[in-house]
Design a protein that fits this description.
Shape: elongated
Radius of gyration: 22 Å
Number of strands: 0
Largest sheet: none
Number of domains: 2
Number of helices: 5
Helix content: 55-70%
Keywords: Membrane, Transmembrane, Transmembrane helix
């Protein structure tokens, strides 16, 4: 009974879709979605993005959290406390499976 009423409700919406107001609402929400989704592109422009990918690779391949900086030439051997190790592993997995587009779409939908 509930399913039938939902179907009827959507049929009436589609029947009235030719109305100008409904087209405006659809265009408005589409533009709003694209605007919000575009903010995920800023993530790729993070200057430390390559470091996050490399650190995620090290965490997943060695199964341990690194405590010393081995990637920079100025602070090599210094102690590092990286609290983002889990998400960096996820970055690396997404990058391996889906490249940058996978990361962009995933964090675009999560934003």
């Amino acid at each position: 009974m509930v399913l039938r009423s939902l179907i009827e409700k959507h049929k009436s919406f589609l029947a009235n879709f030719s109305d100008t107001n409904n087209k405006f609402v659809l265009i408005f929400y589409s533009c709003l979605f694209l605007f919000i989704f575009s903010f995920c592109l800023a993530f790729i422009f993070d200057p430390d993005f390559g470091w996050h990918l490399r650190y995620g690779e090290e965490v997943l391949l060695n199964h341990k959290i690194l405590t010393t900086d081995t990637f920079s030439h100025t602070f090599t051997g210094d102690c590092v406390l990286d609290y983002e190790w889990l998400i960096e592993g996820i970055y690396y997995l997404l990058f391996v499976k889906f490249s940058f587009l996978g990361i962009i779409f995933t964090f675009g939908f999560l934003s």
